[in-house]
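Chain particulars:
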Amino acid sequence: MDRSTRYPKEVRERAVHLVLEHEREYPSQWAAITSIATKLGMTPETLRKWVRRAETDEGLRPGLTTTERERMKALEKENRELRRANEDLKRTQSQLIHQEKMGSLGRLVAGIAHELNNPINFVYGNVDFLAQYLRDLLALCDLYDRGELPDDMRRLAEAHKRTIEYDFLRKDVEKLLRSIRAGAERTASIVRDLKTFSHAGTADYQPADILAGLETTLNLIHPLLKNRITVHRDFEPLPKVDCQAGHLNQVFMNVLTNAAQAVVGEGNIWITARHVGDRVRISVTDSGPGIPEKVLPQIFEPFFTTKEVGLGTGLGLAISLGVIKAHGGTIEVESPPGKGATFTIELPVQQKR
């Protein structure tokens, strides 16, 4: 007995209609079937069977003549094509808006980075002079210590040394200078990374170093990783990829930030980079609890999020999917129960001209 007969005809037709109408909103038809079946409380296998029967026009419309069936099939095909064209138009519009926003953001960040660069260079460029001046002053103090001084002057000098903790000051001043230098270098590095990250606000596809983009992104999310998450890199040499580097950096930001936030307490993130034929493949795996199987088909849907209210908009992965598709690539996710999640991105090395 066909198990599908347990469901009323209206339910079957409605379920099939939902799949055919919304399948373009999902990475694949199977993802649409799984998501819709879950929402309707039925098995994905059953719904897939109905969809296949509908696509071959069997069993869902008894009583129609052959001519009516053919006409109905043609109308449904035209309907699907119109819906797909409309969805493509919406995606293109969304991509153009996102591209314009990225361009504006890139110009804003580049401007801020430029303004920060001058005072940072002032600190960084003068710390060495300050260190030398302090050494000269301490050398002068040493000369006075070794020289002949009146007894009352010597007593005053020794009393003042104790007041200012002279011996500690001499040791600590070198540490302070090293800290100032390290802080200035770190700040200068962040500014460089911001300028790199915001680069390529242009719509043109240009050859870019994907590994450099990953490293820049890791530097920018360092506060999320510091003293908590160990990043394991397994990078093969990669050719430069024709891309919009700023947009891809945003994808890396979204995926790596999600991975870091998925890890509770201490953990690990593994990043692999491979050159496979005419494509490059980037995989990001975290040691978090993984993504529940029931929501896995929905994670690329706009506004869908598993994070707490206020911690995520649900747009990061939806935008990432759009960016990767615009580059002619793919983004997929695997999440064995309790074993973290792996996002795999594949991109063509060269764009079709």
Observations:
- Residues 120-198 form one domain.
- The chain has a mean pLDDT of 79.
- The chain is about 60% helix and 10% strand.
- The beta strands are 206-208, 229-235, 241-243, 267-276, 279-286, 330-334, 342-348.
